[in-house]
Amino acid sequence: MQRDELVRYLDDTLRINEVADYGPQGLQIEGRPQVDKIIGLVDAHQPCVQAALDRSADLMLVHHGIFWGGAKPLVGSYGRLVRAFVEHDLNLYAAHLALDAHPQWGNNAELARRLGLIVTDWWANVKGTPLAVLAECEVPLPFDELVDRYRERVGMPRLVQAEGPALVKKVGILSGFGADKIADAAGLGCDAYITGETSHSQYYEAVNAGINLLYGGHYTSETVGVQALGAHLAERFNVDFEFVDLPTGL
User: Fold this and answer.
1) Boundary of a domain, candidates 96, 116, 131
2) Is there a contact between 108 and 90 (Cβ–Cβ < 8 Å)?
3) Higher pLDDT, 71 or 7
4) DSSP characters for 140-156?
């Protein structure tokens, strides 16, 4: 299919021009006009580019693109990264907060779906867009079982803190870094909160708030949106999609 048609669809579907972010999102690097093979990854750095090239990709679909904050000179490792895209005529499409926030293929909605939870509301406003979901179990679920579901359906958790009730009904979910939202999740009445990563300074927040915490890993918690979106594109446009798992361990 034509790249421009795909980009228009993604921009519209993800509201890429409406969701404010930390840098420009959408088509970050323009490559060849024909797209038959899409490779999905969480990140867009050298090993990721090489993985895409090894699989004859026409377009990389990623969550973490290459633009954050102000402009940077194309020198050193950053220059080499950009040249790798240009020299191989490889398209790069990035969707960061817009993908987190998407109600169907976004990271947080997809995490809820995989865990068998029902999304009831959105919260955690970032740059004007609520990113996190509030979700409920159809019947109260042992926290241990929720952890098992994450392990089986998403990936290995990095840290589990069972500081809340043994049975959970309401769950807050915010992929990536969301440890600074623990008190907010507790204030919304969540029995459990699932996010990606934390630091030592936030460890006791769960204890103080009396809430169960599952830290699923920043990388792992953000694999699901690209996978869900890529599968949708493959079905809708009859293009080849493959997700490449390159975990960082974080």
Assistant:
1) 96
2) no
3) 7
4) EEEHHHHHHHHHHHT--
